[in-house]
Automatic annotation (TrEMBL):
Coiled coil: none annotated. InterPro entries: DNA_bind_recomb_sf, DNA_bind_recombinase_dom, Resolv_N, Resolvase-like_N_sf, SSR_resolvase. This is Recombinase family protein. Residues 1-144 form the Resolvase/invertase-type recombinase catalytic domain. Signal peptide: none annotated.
Amino acid sequence: MSTEHQRYSTENQSDAIGVYAAERGYQVIQTYSDAGKSGLQIKGRDGLTQMLDDIQAGKTDFNTVLVYDISRWGRFQDADESAYYEYICKRAGIEIEYCAEQFENDGSPVSTIVKGVKRAMAGEYSRELSQKVFAGQSRLIEMGYRQGGPPGFGLRRMLIDEAGNQKGVLARGEHKSIQTDRVVLVPGPVDEIALVNKIFRSFVEDSQSEAMIAAELNAKGIKTDLGRNWTPSVVRQILSNEKYIGNNIWNRRSFKLKKHHVRNNPDNWVRSEGAFAAIVDTGLFAAAKAIFAAKALRYSDEEMLDGLRGTLKAHGFLSGIVIDEASALPSSGAYQSRFGSLLRAYKLVGFTPDRDYRYIEINKRLRRIHAEIVESTIGGIEQIGGQVELDTKTNLLTINHEFSASVVIARCTQTRAGAYRWNIRLDTGLLPDITVVVRMDQTNETPLDYYLLPTADMTRPKIRLSESNGLSLDAFRLDSLKHFFALSRRISILEVA
């Protein structure tokens, strides 16, 4: 089931299956479920994947699988996909019975025809729902409401009620809790607004490149809205995003029915002009836009490809990030617009993207994030009165001269079945008292949660985490490092003679 607000809740399905089993004399000995998961693809369906793996490996103590109805396999756009998963079970000698269907799954011509129709209907339901959701989201955009995503430097998300009354600014990570509430963008702190305008003036009036602007901001110790260092691509995002002149733009990219990520033509963007209060003059924004357009038109196809070849030779691989960070090249968006896609541009310069190259970028980003988390951890401990000594060679933290801690970043990976995993290698050489494991989200962009693992309780040098790990490991899971900082708090006690 994909949401709690429908008749297909796991509880309702379980109850119906239980009644069916009792009536037929079955004993339910194992349950496979995918709560809160979309049925458009098998990716991420840990329950279904585990069941198929168990059946194919012969690790089952059952001979019949009870399914609520045909659509529970999934609302696949290819109706044959759910038929294939049912066939896998039957091939292994496992019978399939549907608890809420009005026919017996006995292999008769009638049941075969009905199943085919219902599988197609399940896919059609998703297509129709996708169209309705898109229409609803488009209407909200046109009304000036924000549809997800961080506000950006210099802006804030304001929560408003159904009548349009402001209820308060949403902090990072906060979301609306009432369905009828909406979110709009409002100007942020005055100093951030001034800095955004300075970025635009530096780019337009002083002819500074994105790299020069980013370097100047980093030299001053200024962080982005996400608390990170500035990069040319981040500066370019500010200079090219219409939200700074009050326009609400949506559907630049789409991922309909979870098939393919598509970069949409500007004609297909959904926009609402003047939806928010502008913090940048429209003339200044238009000047920046004209500079980007001139840069893209200034190069011929061959000149753009020659620059790409040089970057490939210098880095050994290509990606959107590499292109955006190269000051001598147009943006990755310019390559996509000129050649139709980045993959086609890569092909023209003789580069074939490989999975390993993406890992190089991820590792580079994780090294930067590791340094930022170590720095913020030291700051959090010192803020509550603790003392920290950092070994610059090993990054081992010694806190209050009492205990040591090591910070480990756990990168998110995905199995072939679509499940997410985090591999952790504990530092057995340094033997810290506590290992602070930062588990990254599915995009490896931001921390998902934290594990505080006492070395005394860890019996293995390597740990493999899944989305749910049981009490033996999840007892150490935290949503933030607040509790870890609390371990470092010390209160002085006056000695009375």
